[in-house]
Amino acid sequence: MDTIKYVLTENQMPKAWYNIQADLPQALPPVLNPATGKPITPDELLPLFPLALIEQEVSQQRWIEIPDAVRSIYCQWRPTPLYRARRLEQALDTPAKIYYKYEGVSPSGSHKPNTAVAQAYYNKQAGVKKLTTETGAGQWGSSLAFAGALFGLEVLVYMVKVSYQQKPYRRALMETYGARVVASPSTQTQAGREILAQNPNSNGSLGIAISEAVEVAAADEQTKYALGSVLNHVLLHQTVIGQEALTQLEMAGDYPDIVIGCTGGGSNFAGIAFPFLGAKLRGERDIQVIAVEPAACPSLTRGKYAYDFGDTAHLTPLTKMHTLGSSFVPEGIHAGGLRYHGMAPLVSHIVNLGLVESRAEYQLACFAAGLTFARAEGILPAPEANHAVKATIDQALLCKQEGRSKTILFNLCGHGHFDMQAYIDYQAGRLVDTEYSAEEVAMALAGLPVVDS
Question: The pTM is what?
Fold first, then answer.
């Protein structure tokens, strides 16, 4: 019988995270203090993050050991399975071989606990009592709530208001784990009150929610901030995904020609792609890598590569990234985890170096791809993951058109069981494709901070 699922034992789980900074041909541009315009120091980040995570953020070591306590918790769902999508291949009548790494088997249903558990561990080690964070679709918020419960940490989640309203079951899951969830923008912070004063009906954005969470953390010595994507240490923690996939593909006697991931902040994309990109940078194997983002929030394909704030209220340091401008508020598409104005600096840097291709997709085509996948493979993807599914199907059909067989690997970063209203709305014809506002982007980019080159 043809193998469908490639499974590793717990002993085969990675013992270290992979840091792509060790293999980059050019160093990542430094993070800047907005007040001075100079590279930020570890001491300046201590109000927000524990020292261990700050050290990981700037580390140039290729491998960073995963603590035993973190690996022990990982064993609840890791290693995750790698599937050969044989039924999807048949449905598409393609000569391509399609594999997907399925991260929806985690307790919260996505890849996010890979970093949530690590961040909670390091904060607990540092004596922190409370964590604040933002969340879009709720995958990150529920993951940090889960991790907080394991380590006895209080968790406060600012959830983007449109997602707070669209996804009540995600909110309920966070509260089940013990977190407090607040719709953002809120009246609880200065940043939230200022946004509401300008627009009382604001749907919110990840940039706004980050501002609120950072404001609360900075005001309390026993509270730290935890981010679910974008930062180097977050992407680092996700590389267990790609490392496992390398071993599983070796079991299958295969190696990908193409690696695909959806991108919002960049964490699940980095998790699947960075270990393969590292092999390419070291001259071991060549590979095509595709990052897929929503057309309603196209930072990689339509944004500017420049220094910008990671949040709307300008409480964060400046990072060089592809950005639509920190004041840009995307339309309320159901892929809430991809509604961020910027992109991870590491992902942006690698795209700028020409190592990764980027493309933007509309939500209706992505939902159609998700249904095609679900009816063939039986797993309903999260709206975010549908972007990777869409690009994978496109590549498989291109193989059919050209009469060539390629091996395609994509990250199915989460299931859509908490997103059923989105699928109900799609099948009822209530969803529409939304264009980003070029005028709003232009206004937001006009407000980019001035940084000396």
Answer: 0.95
